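Subject: Protein record for review, amino acid sequence with backbone structure tokens
Concerning: The relation between a protein's sequence and the shape of its backbone.
How to read it: Take the token row as a discrete description of the fold.
Enclosed: The protein record, placed directly beneath this head.
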Amino acid sequence: MKNYPHSAIGQKQNLLARLINGWFAVLTVVLLTVVAAPAQTNPNHSTDEPQSNEGIQKGGNEFGIWGGFSFHAPTLIGKTPEARFGNLGLRYGRVLAASENVAFEYTIDVIPVAVLSLKRFTAVPVSPGVFSIQESRERVYGAGAAPIGLKLNFRRQKRVQPFAAATGGFLYFSEQVPVAGASQFNFTYDFSGGIQIVNSNRRSFTIGYKYHHISNGYTATFNPGVDLQMIYAGFSIFK
């Protein structure tokens, strides 16, 4: 098995930390802007009244189901090539703030089903002292949750709403992944974007792209990590 220098790993982890911190800093700035926006409205107009009965409203709750699958496994941070991944999630979201054009939502996802497909190599004896390396794929099943989620919907009163989101959580697999000596328990985070189509009854359909990372955070002997590019879709109801 190929070993990776700890200095190089540390540099990549530091870069990752800066990217995550930058992402959440941007979300924080936007949230403050959204919260401050009502104070700039017409003083004769009560800020307690919703600006519109359409779209996503402050204080609204989102209940949804979604599913996704990977189409590529890059090795930007994780070092597991040709991995395949799919998952199914249930979502609850709470709209914390809304301006005229932007809605800020906190989300919680429960992942009842996750499937990680990995290449395995097995040494098979063909004659005394001679072995043949055979390649196969193994599916490993898991479940978990993403209790930390931030989501921004733009054009919140329109039917077609672009969004950007990020989540953090964990998955527990039936075996150590992505290699023996790694961990069954893994941390996850992702960055995503796409469009959410919301009708007049506040039913919505979502389709988006997600960059998803799975890693045990160096809590085990090996931590190759898995990076995944995913497409996902979902259905939600806002109440």
Summary: The chain has one domain: 6-238.
